[in-house]
Design goal:
- With 406 residues, this protein is α+β, with helices and mostly antiparallel strands.
- It has a domain of 88 residues.
- 23% of the residues lie in helices and 32% in strands.
- The protein is built from ten helices and 24 strands.
- The strands form six sheets. Strands 4-3-6-9-10-1-13 form a seven-stranded mixed β-sheet. Strands 11-12-20-19-18 form a five-stranded mixed β-sheet. Strands 5-2-7-8 form a four-stranded antiparallel β-sheet, with no helix packed on it.
- A hairpin with a 2-residue loop joins strand 21 and strand 22.
- Helix 2 packs across helix 10.
- The longest helix is centred in the N-terminal third of the chain and has 20 residues.
- The chain is globular.
């Protein structure tokens, strides 16, 4: 069973370096070396285990604060597909090899084994869910709002030439660039063919980096739908006593993902993610003019200097999904979760779980968590694994009433 992964799009020509022998669809052989292609081609490896191809300047973290270019190496077939926008580079790779790469790219390959097993199950499930279920795709905007409100969410993208992209918008897939570990290979072998299921159906197994202590319900980030296994849960063994959003976000209650264990974090987070350490609680300050420039740039709306922001609706974790922004000239209401994060940062704000303070020089937002917070919390799951929880216990904690089976 193969997965087709989109690596680069809109290229006029593609330079690739081959390691090992490859053959195209006409039977022509390609020896190891560098090649440049400007038209459609498919190159199959003579041996899946020893042959590879490398691409320079692959952009990762597109649109996020860790965006950068890397040289990446891949196993499997190299394929170029031509569209009006240019060439698309596609990697056709066996499913379990894809999963091994994802769990070594989303997290570090040195993660605790039970976390790697849990991630193998949900990454396999997330990939396969649309094949068995109708899933919303692309950007969706509510059609019934007035001119002062923008309500958008971003569904799973429908890629015409491949199953999934290789970046954070789908799942991180960086080929064999990230060092695989014996634990990553063992996690995939131990869970081979296993999916997360609810009432027998494969789950839409969402996950994020750090929930901030409480996971979020699906409808806060995407369409207004209740998904039983994507409801909000407290990320700890016992419920915190904090009972208001203000108290919760302004404090740092105990939770699985509330950890400062530098050794564990170095094992869990890939190198570039380790640049972000204030993920459980954080704050950002803006002047009125800085906010105005952000809103104008990100939403193409000129409100003038921003004087106030009001949370109109929150999810169970405190994540805002309707936010009113008031400027000197006008106001706007924006949502959902990701649109708020995009509007208030030149990349992406850590999360929309925040409270707002007015200060003399502008506004300060104090926030919780990193990501949409729906489903498995990667940092919390890592802590659970170090405390001796099995991968099925971790999955049943984050996805209630689910089972794991082939």
């Amino acid at each position: 069973m193969n997965v087709s992964v989109g690596l680069l799009e809109g290229q006029s020509a593609v330079d690739v370096e081959l390691t090992g022998a490859f053959t195209d669809s006409s039977g022509k052989s390609y020896t190891p070396g560098r090649y440049k292609f400007s038209s459609e081609v498919t190159l199959a490896p003579s041996d899946l285990a020893s042959c590879a191809f490398a691409l320079d300047d692959v952009t990762i973290g597109i649109g996020f604060h860790w965006e950068r270019k890397e040289r990446q190496v891949f196993r499997g077939a190299f394929r170029l597909s031509k569209r009006d926008s240019g060439l698309t580079v596609i990697n056709d790779v066996p499913l379990e090899d894809y999963v091994t790469s994802v769990i070594s790219s989303e997290m570090s390959a040195r993660c605790p084994l039970e976390l790697l097993k849990a991630h193998a199950v949900i990454s396999r499930s997330w990939l396969w869910f649309p094949k068995a279920n109708a899933a919303p795709v692309g950007r969706v905007q509510s059609p019934s709002l007035d001119s002062h409100e923008i309500l958008r969410w971003y569904g799973r993208e429908a890629h015409p030439d491949f199953d999934v992209c290789a970046d954070d918008h789908c799942q991180r897939y960086q080929g064999i660039t990230k060092a695989f570990s014996p634990a990553a290979a063992e996690a995939v072998r131990a869970t081979a063919g296993e999916f997360l299921r609810y009432n027998g159906a494969i789950c839409d197994a969402r996950f994020s980096k750090c929930c901030g202590g409480i996971t979020e319900r699906y409808a806060t980030a995407w369409e207004d739908a209740d998904i039983p296994y994507l409801e909000s849960i407290y990320d700890g063994p016992t419920q915190s006593s904090s009972n208001t959003f203000e108290t919760w976000i302004r404090s740092a209650p105990p939770a699985y993902c509330n950890t400062t264990d530098s050794e564990l974090l170095s094992r869990v987070l890939p190198g570039f993610d380790q640049e972000t350490r204030d993920f459980y609680r954080w704050q950002v300050a803006y002047t009125p003019e800085e906010l105005a420039d952000l809103i104008n740039t990100r939403l193409d709306v000129d409100l003038g200097p921003i004087r106030e922001m009001q949370a109109l609706a929150r999810g169970p974790s405190g994540r805002i999904y309707r936010l009113k922004i008031i400027g000197e000239r006008d106001y706007i209401i924006i949502g959902k979760e990701l649109e708020i994060r995009r509007a208030l940062s030149s990349t992406h704000l850590y999360s929309s779980a925040f409270v707002i303070d007015k200060e003399q020089d502008g506004l300060v937002i104090k926030g919780a968590g990193w990501g949409h917070g729906v489903g498995l919390c990667q940092i919390g799951a890592a802590v659970m694994a170090t405390e001796g929880k099995t991968y099925t216990e971790i999955l049943q904690h984050y996805y209630r009433e689910t089972t794991v089976s082939v």
